[in-house]
Amino acid sequence: MLIEQIITRETTPPKSAARRSGKSESMQAMEREAARIRWLLAINPNTPPPVLDQLARSAEAELLERIAENPRTHGATLARLADHENPQVRASVAENMNASLKTMWKLTRDPSADVRMRLAESYTVPLAVLRVLNTDENPYVKLRAEKTLARLLEEVSTLRSA
């Protein structure tokens, strides 16, 4: 239901706008169905990386977030999305384990604290990146990076003693 609401909100113009634009009801229905299909492709973990890359080239921010979250999204697509103007898209890139080390380093300097926070929460980020975030100017990012680092180091010591 939530997905349908988002898709409908994004693609359905007001009825008066539809009359002004000259789009027929069937054309609007086709556009809504196309948006629904794009959404389903973006959230499907089996969607091939080239399809996700193509979807990412002309999509709205909410769809780009889903593409950035998808575990099959290629690192090159994530690198491109890391430059997106919307911080929520960049934050979704920060959580994807396919993001390259170069992309992660770039996100450590992101102007949005929310993006840096999501990076600091990730257990797939290298320790060196977490150490940099542990010196972040934002106290919440710094604390989150410290907690993630402590947890990862605890797991490493547990594995060594086992």
What would your notes on this structure say?
The protein has 162 residues and is an all-alpha fold. The chain has one domain (44-161): Leucine-rich Repeat Variant, CATH 1.25.10. Helix content is 72%, strand content 0%. It is built from eleven helices and no strands. It has helices spanning 2-11, 15-21, 25-43, 49-56, 61-69, 75-81, 87-95, 101-108, 113-121, 127-133, 139-161. The chain is elongated, with a radius of gyration of 19 Å. Mean pLDDT is 87; it is low at 1-14.
Quick rundown:
This protein is mainly α and about 160 residues long. It has helices at about 1-10, 15-20, 25-45, 50-55, 60-70, 75-80, 85-95, 100-110, 115-120, 125-135, 140-160.
Please supply descriptive tags for the structure shown above.
mainly alpha, Leucine-rich Repeat Variant, 0% strand, 162 residues, 11 helices
